[in-house]
Amino acid sequence: MGEQNIKYELDGETRRFFTKRLLTDLRALDQMIRQGVFEKGITRIGAEQEMFIVERGWWPSTKAVEILDRINDPHFTTELALFNLEANLDPYEFTGDCLSVMEKQLLELVEKARKTAAELDVEVILTGILPTIRKGDLGLDNLTPKPRYFALNRVLSQMRGGDYDFYIRGLDELSLRHDSMMVEACNTSFQVHMQVAPEDFARYYNIAQIATAPVLAAATNSPLLLGRRLWHETRIALFQQAIDTRVSSHNLRERSPRVTFGTQWVKNSVLELYFEDIARFRSLLDSELQENPFELLEKGEMPQLYALKLHNGTVYRWNRACYGITNGIPHLRIENRVLPSGPTPRDEIANATFWLGLVKGLALRNEDITRRMSFEDATTNFYSAARLGLYAQFSWLEHKRVPAQTLICDTLLPIAEEGLQKVGVRQEDIDLYLGVIDKRVRTGQNGSEWMLTSMAAMRHRSSMGEKLNALTAGIIARQKENKPVAEWEPVRLEEAGREKHNYLRVEQYMTTDLFTVQEDELVDMVASLMDWARIRHVPVEDQESRLVGLVSYRALLRLMARGWRTADGEMLPVSEIMNKNLVTVTPETMTMDAIELMRKHRISCLPVVRDGRLVGVVTERDFMNVTAGLLEEKLKES
User: Fold this and answer.
1) Among 197, 237, 490, 564, which residue carries the largest CB count within 10 Å?
2) CATH number, domain at 632?
3) Which residue range forms the structural domain that includes residue 554?
4) 309, 342, 357: which is the final residue of a domain?
5) Stretch 524-531: mean pLDDT, rounded?
6) pLDDT in tens, 475-515
7) What is the mean pLDDT of residues 448-476?
8) What's the chain's average pLDDT?
9) What is the spatial distance between Cα 340 and Cα 450, in angstroms, rounded to a whole number?
10) Chain-centre distance for alpha carbon 285
């Protein structure tokens, strides 16, 4: 998707012309494989590092373009959102000290991004999903101003025919509707590439599919989204739903999502993957760059296969086949898109080491591993790892049920070590990086578990916004030490700081765990709620969850003063006493504006709404808690 010379208006004729080019590229690739023009006898590895940019207040910063202008380094490029960056590592031959050299370059690139960001008074952070990201950050005004991103968003939105709906269930539930593909920008990853010879591709790709689940279980680092505790690697569910172009229907026809683990084993060739993706998924974009691949091959030149690569960039297999050219020689790669960004560069290289070594180690057995595991089991393992992380149970070879921790430590790490030794990776690096995985798995503390444990320790101490700030601040501080996550201490609430930036917006401290009623319910129900939950305000919603009123304890006091029942002796409905003329704010409302509204209207509660629906409340008690904390901090300083 790096190509900028794209078009998105694909009418019938344009689509047919692009499809013809696509099929021509596929036939050219077939001929190139049969003629043996691909690079052989060498395996190279590489990686892509995605990262977030955050303000000093820990929420997303939209300074990607400014950072790129200042950094002036071809290793860096844009991502979908203005609060994301990507750094591409150099390819290395898979042998010797390649892994430690890769970590060294990764550290240098991250530090370069960090220093450049600091010049703009912002930070960079490696994490699968930024804990402090908010729905308000996901507007198209934060989309990186590149033609391919606008084109992709427009085409996907047209194909969906409406809003983007998200539903993810873990410890908590997230039900979200959004108007663009920008929710995909919540995800950042550490993508690992491994070069594979064409004749070995099918076997290695299938092994890579099998190896993905246990590696992911050890590496999960994205358990939170919008304050909800969801999957241990929520990126998996979120990305699939963000790029899903399927529409609901009443029939039983099966349709594949554009983000997919796949549908079956590869039998003979990489061509099977490309053909399936062309057959299942309509072309989204067209490129102005064109070539005749057969004419180039006749002249001894290698074609870029522009159409095939463009289409491949809009189908998101978790293990994706990639075609490329290095020094005029074409090659094939398997791109692992599963691994999250973070927690540290060392953790990321350890994850890559485990996956690369495991694929090589399983390949050494020279057996058809697909005869020992069904594709359905491999798929189930993958989603189990994404949901549960190290708590997953896997159906391994011959359908044996094995806990993730037992399988990884007792069986898979030795296989990965054998694979790394076979390709000549130095033993010092093998011990270092597989040791990181071993300690992480044995202690049960990977990135997602560390976040969940830290959040639990802070659960009843402050607002959700302050806890998420503390988590983000804690990740950044620990990341700079590059000490593996298995050695991290839980975050402390104080790490967020009690500076003013923790309370600039309403959403940072509003109450979101609400008790509500509907307008036809009994007033006695409201009184009981206030007494039981020790609250002074109860919002009133209609059947479509729209805010229609608010009942305050003062309204109840007035009602008690003049009698509790109507003239006919029936209990009053809520609609009789609720306030319908509401003053509301949005989550993005500045705190000073909210305070001014409460003073102006002499009210003690502000419902927080988005699109007419209640998302939280802010009361005078919240402001007292904020003030008390700030006062306490100031007194400590003096």
Assistant:
1) 237
2) 3.10.580.10
3) 507-637
4) 357
5) 86
6) 999 999 999 999 999 999 888 875 556 677 888 788 888 88
7) 90
8) 90
9) 15
10) 24
Q: Is 97 a domain residue? A: yes
Question: How many domains, in total, are found in the chain?
Answer: 2
CA distance 144 to 141: 8
Question: What span, in angstroms and rounded, lies between the C-alpha atoms of 256 and 241?
Answer: 12
- The Cα 307–Cα 18 span in angstroms is 7
Contact yes or no for 342/51 (Cβ under 8 A):
no
| Residue 549 in this model has a pLDDT that exceeds 90 | yes
Residue type, position 533, single letter:
A
* 566 has pLDDT over 60: no
CA 414/CA 431 separation, integer angstroms: 11
- The type of residue at 139 is G
Q: Say if 543 falls within a structural domain.
A: yes
Residues 143 and 518 sit within 8 Å (Cβ to Cβ) = no
Higher confidence at residue 4 or residue 378?
378
Q: CB neighbours of 114 closer than 8 A, spacing ≥ 6?
A: 123, 124, 480
What are φ and ψ of residue 61, in 5° steps? -110, 140
CA distance 197 to 279: 25
Strand partners, 505: 590
Q: Backbone phi, then psi, for 369, in 5-degree steps?
A: -65, -20
With a cut of 70, say whether residue 251 has pLDDT above it.
no
Instruction: Read off φ and ψ for residue 144, nearest 5 degrees.
Output: -60, 130
Question: Which candidate, 105, 98, 101, places its Cα nearest to that of 73?
Answer: 105
In a domain, 234, yes or no: yes
Both tokens assigned to 166:
């998200």
What is the per-residue pLDDT across 70-87, written as a single tens digit (0 to 9) for each?
Answer: 999 999 999 999 999 999
Distance CA 324, CA 359 (A): 21
User: Within a domain: residue 8?
Assistant: no
423 has pLDDT over 80: yes
Q: What is the pTM of this model?
A: 0.88
Q: Which of 357, 381, 410 lies at the terminal end of a domain, its last residue? A: 357
